[in-house]
Write a structure and sequence with these properties.
Blueprint: H1 2-22, H2 26-33, E1 40-46, E2 52-56, H3 69-80, E3 85-93, E4 98-101, H4 110-122, E5 131-134, E6 169-175, E7 184-187, E8 194-201, E9 206-211, E10 219-226, E11 230-235, H5 239-253, E12 263-264, E13 272-281, H6 285-291, H7 295-310, H8 316-329, H9 353-363, H10 369-375, E14 395-402, E15 405-413, E16 419-427, H11 433-450
Parallel strand pairs: 4-5, 5-12, 8-10
Antiparallel strand pairs: 1-2, 1-16, 3-4, 3-13, 6-7, 6-11, 9-10, 14-15, 15-16
């Protein structure tokens, strides 16, 4: 018995010695990255007490990239509530006019439009006098402040508006022909795009897509090689035009006789009745924003929450007012931060690492904390699909990436079983994206083994 006890004690002692020997301080981890520490901001705080554990340039304002979604998502969902639903509704007036009241629903699809008109047909509404679209839910600003012009073809950054439909993306099909000959390029639904086709049928695949200039904004230059059929998604340049084209198709598919334009007009308050309503709840939105880092969803939800909070049209100003109310409720000082969108895409966003960990600590005292934390990617999930696998279930974090910038923020449980909120931001044009992300892992491993 004594020998077993002694053996157990020796094993435990060796384990402690081994862990201490392999523990690395955060400054040593930073030195190992080769990145100048002036380019790195770090804040680590105890989750329960908020006590500062480690800090490096933690008060310096930097663009947080998509880690900003931690803040804007939380404020938006707190404002909207779990029961919130997007509703796209068709009404009929006493004058036999149809109205489509938009909500900016990011989940609305062309199939949903067909459902609206199918119900109209079933209710014998086959010859409407006029069809109006009420787009008053949002303002007409469709892109974020400071977003870059060369991201116009980025499928992760479509425009967002009252006319959201099919994620505001359109598929381009590239179809091989004969070896060495140009491929066929087309869209499977009608939308006025023109293609400069410089793609050759080959035994290899390499495609580059660029956008035309302001004189021909819907001209797409496509060059390279393909060996098999390929489908690429690009943002819709004019969401209202795309919406109206799909609406006209839905009318034809349901054999509704209407040959006038689609007009824009606010829904009247009287002498109308509901024909049909398409609703979507927020079930999938957490994963879209926090795990997949979907900018389209983040921006739409942020603008929607601003409209609900201020009982007004969705706009950036109303969203920022909503956000300020939420941060005040958490007792977070945001006097030194600048936020200009809901997704973190703009480099005009400026927050500090300390602000982020202050927020994460305050969030831990909220009733929805466990749900929020569990919505964040763990290693092997979402944007951490191939990252941070060393930490297993001990890490819940949101990543962020812009040109020259990499960030990660969230919660970590260390080897000693202690819980911390952390934020790391690296702003260094001299190192690659992969090098910055490797540096984040070095730093997090030091936190994991040292505290």
């Amino acid at each position: 018995m004594y020998r077993k006890f002694l053996t157990l004690m020796i094993v435990m002692l060796l384990s402690v010695v081994f862990n201490l020997a392999n523990a690395e301080s955060v400054p040593n981890a930073i030195a190992k990255t080769g990145i100048n520490k002036s380019a790195i901001s770090i804040s680590v705080q105890e989750l329960n007490s908020g006590k500062k554990v480690y800090s490096l340039n933690s008060s310096r304002p930097l663009p947080p990239a998509s880690t900003l979604k931690l803040v804007t998502y939380s404020a938006s969902f707190d404002t909207l509530g779990k029961s919130f639903e997007y509703k796209t509704t068709m009404y009929k007036s006493a004058n036999n006019d149809l109205y489509i009241k938009l909500s900016g629903d990011p989940m609305l699809t062309t199939k949903d439009l067909k459902t609206l008109f199918n119900t109209a047909k079933n209710k014998k509404i086959t010859e409407p006098k006029n069809i109006y679209i009420d787009d008053s839910v949002f303002d007409n600003i469709e892109w974020g402040e400071g977003w870059q012009w060369d991201d116009a073809l980025n499928p992760l950054m479509p425009k967002f508006s009252a006319y959201n439909l099919d994620y505001n993306l359109i598929d381009i099909v590239l179809k091989p022909t004969n070896q060495g000959a140009p491929v066929e390029i087309f869209t499977e639904v009608f939308y006025p795009l023109a293609f400069m086709n410089l793609v050759t049928t080959s035994d290899r695949d390499s495609i580059v897509i660029t956008k035309g200039n302001k004189i021909s904004p819907e001209m797409i230059n496509v060059e390279g090689f393909i060996s098999k059929r390929k489908v690429l998604s690009i943002p819709v340049f004019n969401p209202s035009r795309y919406f109206k084209l799909r609406t006209e198709e839905a009318l034809k598919s349901q054999k509704i006789d209407y040959y006038k334009p689609l007009f824009v007009k606010n829904l009247p308050e009287n002498n109308i009745y509901k024909v049909e309503e398409i609703s979507h709840n927020l079930d999938i939105v957490s994963d879209k924003i926090l795990k997949e880092s979907n900018n389209f969803f983040a921006e739409t939800i942020f603008k929607t929450a601003g409209a609900v909070s201020e009982n007004s049209k969705g706009s950036l100003n109303n969203s920022l007012t909503m956000l300020n109310k939420y941060l005040k409720k958490l007792n977070i000082d945001n006097s030194e931060v600048k936020i200009v969108d809901g997704s973190g895409v703009s480099k005009n966003n400026l927050v500090s690492a300390k602000f982020m960990t202050d927020f994460l600590v305050a969030k831990a005292s909220m009733p929805d904390f466990n749900e929020f934390k569990n919505s964040l990617p763990k290693p092997g999930e979402g944007t951490l699909e191939n990252r941070m696998l060393y930490f297993k279930d001990n890490l819940h974090a949101k990543t962020g990436t812009l040109s020259d910038i990499s960030a990660i923020a969230g919660y970590i449980t260390t080897q000693k079983g202690k819980n911390y909120a952390f934020d790391i931001m690296i702003n260094d044009p001299k190192t690659s994206e992969s090098a910055k992300k490797l540096a984040e892992e070095y730093i997090l491993r030091a936190i994991y083994t040292s505290y």
